[in-house]
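lol forgot to send this yesterday, sorry. C-alpha cells for the thing we talked abt
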C-alpha cells in the first residue's frame, strides 16, 4: 500500500536538500566573485557568466524535482527559487558597482565629486561647440565692433604707474607668473606660485588634457618647441606676413582646401583692417601670455624643472616689458590676438570668447568686490 504521508515527508526533505544545495552554490559564487582580482570589465563579465550558470543549474534542478514532486512542493520551491534569484541578482549588481568604484578610485584616488564636476564641464564645452553657427561676413564685421568697444573699455580701467625693476628684483618672478594671468583666470588656476593647481591626479589629468587636446603637446620636446615658437615668431610674425600680402591668395598654396582658404581670407581681412593702427609687436601679449601659461603647465607636469621655468619666464618678461607698456595694453594685445585666432579657426562664438578675456583682465586689474585689488594691480608693470 502506498503511504502518501511518507511520500510527502520524503518530498519535503528532498526539497530542503535542493534549497540547501542552491544556497551553497550561491555562497561559492559569492566567494569566487569577491576573491578574483581583475579589471572592472572582466568582473562584470565574470559576474554575468556566474549568474547565467546559476540560472542554468537552478532551472535543471527544478526540472528534475518537478518530475518527482507534486504541485504543492513545486510551488514552495518556486518561491524559494525566486527569493534566491533575487539575492543573486542583487549581489551581481553590488559586485559590478563595487568593481567600477574600486577601479575609479585606483585611477583618481580622490573625491569622485571633483571628477564628476570635471566631466560636467567637458559636457558643457561639447554642448557649446554643437551650438556654433557659420561665421559669415556680417558676423565678422560685428566682431570688429565688439573688439573695438572692448579694447576701449579695457583701456579705461585704472592701473598704477609702471615702475623700474632692478635686474635681480624678486618681483620679476612674480611678474612672469602673472603674464599667464588671463589663461590662468579662465581655467581657475592659482596665480601665487609656479604650480597652477594642487598635485592631485584629477587635476594633473585635467592639465594634461588641456595641453594635449588644445596644443598637440605630448611632452618636454613639444613643449619647448612651442614656447620657442611663441617667443621668437608666433602671431607677431604671422600678423606681419598677412599685413605685407597684397591679397590673401599670396598666402595660399595648392594643397589648401576651401575651408583653409576661407580661414586665410578672414585673417587677411582682419590684418588689413588694423595694420595701420597696430604694428606686429602689438601681438606680443597674445604670444607671451600663452607661452607663460605653457611654461607653468610644463613645470606643473614635471616636463620642466622649476629653475628652467623661472629662467623661461624671465626671458618672456623681458620681451613683454620691452614691447608693451602696461597691463591694460597687455590685455588689449591678448584680446586682439585672440580674435585673429578665432577668425582663423572660423569660430562663430568669438564674441563670447572676447567677453571671457575682458572679464578675466578686469578681475586681474581691479579685482572682485570680495577680493579687493586685482593681482595685476598689485604688481606694477616694469619700465624697461
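and heres what i got for the seq, position by position
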Amino acid at each position: 500500500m502506498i503511504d502518501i504521508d511518507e511520500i510527502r515527508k520524503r518530498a519535503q526533505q528532498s526539497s530542503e536538500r535542493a534549497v540547501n544545495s542552491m544556497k551553497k552554490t550561491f555562497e561559492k559564487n559569492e566567494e569566487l566573485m569577491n576573491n578574483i582580482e581583475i579589471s572592472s570589465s572582466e568582473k562584470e563579465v565574470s559576474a554575468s557568466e556566474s549568474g547565467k550558470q546559476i540560472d542554468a543549474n537552478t532551472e535543471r534542478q527544478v526540472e528534475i524535482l518537478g518530475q518527482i514532486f507534486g504541485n504543492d512542493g513545486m510551488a514552495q520551491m518556486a518561491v524559494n527559487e525566486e527569493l534566491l534569484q533575487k539575492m543573486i541578482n542583487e549581489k551581481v549588481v553590488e559586485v559590478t558597482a563595487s568593481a567600477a568604484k574600486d577601479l575609479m578610485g585606483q585611477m583618481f584616488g580622490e573625491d569622485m565629486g571633483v571628477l564628476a564636476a570635471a566631466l560636467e564641464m567637458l559636457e558643457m564645452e561639447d554642448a557649446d561647440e554643437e551650438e556654433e553657427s557659420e561665421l559669415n561676413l556680417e558676423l565678422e564685421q560685428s566682431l570688429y565692433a565688439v573688439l573695438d568697444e572692448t579694447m576701449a573699455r579695457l583701456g579705461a580701467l585704472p592701473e598704477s604707474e609702471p615702475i623700474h625693476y632692478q635686474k635681480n628684483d624678486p618681483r620679476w618672478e612674480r611678474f612672469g607668473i602673472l603674464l599667464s594671468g588671463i589663461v590662468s583666470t579662465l581655467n581657475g588656476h592659482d596665480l601665487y606660485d609656479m604650480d597652477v593647481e594642487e598635485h592631485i591626479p584629477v587635476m594633473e589629468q585635467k592639465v594634461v588634457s588641456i595641453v594635449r587636446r588644445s596644443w598637440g603637446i605630448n611632452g618636454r620636446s613639444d613643449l619647448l618647441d612651442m614656447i620657442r615658437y611663441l617667443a621668437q615668431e608666433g602671431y607677431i610674425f604671422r600678423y606681419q606676413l598677412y599685413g605685407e600680402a597684397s591679397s590673401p591668395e599670396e598666402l595660399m598654396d595648392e594643397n589648401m582646401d576651401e575651408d583653409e582658404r576661407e580661414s586665410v581670407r578672414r585673417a587677411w581681412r582682419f590684418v588689413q583692417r588694423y595694420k595701420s593702427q597696430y604694428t606686429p609687436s602689438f601681438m606680443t601679449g597674445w604670444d607671451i601670455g600663452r607661452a607663460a601659461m605653457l611654461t607653468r603647465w610644463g613645470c606643473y607636469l614635471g616636463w620642466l624643472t622649476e629653475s628652467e621655468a623661472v629662467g623661461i619666464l624671465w626671458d618672456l618678461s623681458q620681451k613683454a616689458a620691452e614691447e608693451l607698456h602696461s597691463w591694460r595694453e597687455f590685455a588689449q594685445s591678448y584680446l586682439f590676438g585672440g580674435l585673429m585666432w578665432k577668425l582663423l579657426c572660423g569660430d562663430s562664438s568669438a564674441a563670447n570668447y572676447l567677453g571671457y578675456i575682458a572679464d578675466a583682465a578686469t578681475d586681474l586689474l581691479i579685482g572682485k568686490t570680495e577680493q579687493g585689488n586685482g593681482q595685476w594691480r598689485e604688481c606694477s608693470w616694469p619700465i624697461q
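The first strand starts at residue 163 and ends at 164. anyway ping me if u want another try
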